[in-house]
Amino acid sequence: MIRFRLLLKIRRYFIKKRAFNLEKEALSASDIREKDKITEYVTKLTHLCQEFIQEVTPPSDPLTKAKMLFSWLWEEKPARYKPQGNYRFNDVIDAQLSKDQQTVGNCLGLTILYNCLLRRMNIIAEALYLENAFGIGPHVLSLLQIGETLIDIENILPNGFDYKGHLDDPSRTRWGDRELVADIYYSFGNEFFSKGEFIKALENYDMALRLNSGYEKARLNKAILLDKMEMDIDGNGYKGSRCFSERNSKVSRLQPRKNRAIRR
């Protein structure tokens, strides 16, 4: 446990010190941390970007280019969105590059992929977080700013470029790169929690809160997790048990039919 906490502190220190690179940080959060593997996936992103440019030959206008990229991604993968789909960035990249018609990812995965590809064409996009989109729970999408104009880009819909359906949502919260990567850690935390791998879940919740200190759902799930671990200690002693009692189903976005997995 002491070694684990020391490694976590070291990792936090280097994240704070180095420039934040969305591509590499999203891969690292997705458990791709070896230098060779990171290079492999960065190269795959380069290939994907080059493929778009060669097939479409986009103009220099950033708005037109962003719209053409959005359309091209959907043309390449018409069934690219899947609730409960991939959120790990490496899986999303592999799925988009695959030659079959498999789905690509959930809203988080699709948003990070689109934003990274835009960044490679010198177009800066942020993200929007919504508490309850489409009546199914928390949700993220891309936010593009061209001059003074803000454009919502709903990555889960084939006609989602310049989407107007969320404009009156009072929960609209702008997210930057750090918040997006925090959401990967949060998703990992939920996955490990549901498997009973509590130490790994705690590590990922901590990383999510390190990147987004205002992420209340991560804070709530961490509190519930610590309570669960304390109960195990008071009972038979915590040994990394895989048990997950029914009363802990209140963990937000943990159960696939009710919470986070549905919105992805």
Describe it for me?
This protein is α+β, with helices and mostly antiparallel strands and 264 residues long. The protein folds into two domains: 21-172, C8orf32 fold (Roll); 178-263. 53% of the residues lie in helices and 8% in strands. It has ten helices and four strands, in the order H-H-H-H-H-H-E-E-E-E-H-H-H-H. It has helices spanning 2-17, 22-29, 35-56, 62-76, 89-97, 107-120, 177-195, 198-211, 216-235, 260-263, and strands spanning 125-130, 139-146, 149-153, 173-175. A four-stranded antiparallel sheet has the order 3-2-1-4. Helix 8 runs antiparallel to helix 9. The longest helix is centred in the first third of the chain and has 22 residues, at 35-56. The protein is globular and about 65 Å long. The two termini are 33 Å apart. The model is unreliable at 239-264 (pLDDT under 50).
Q: Spatial order of the strands in the main sheet? A: 3-2-1-4
- The helix tally amounts to 10
Range of helix content: 40-55%
CATH architecture of the largest domain: Roll
Name of the CATH first level of the largest domain:
Alpha Beta
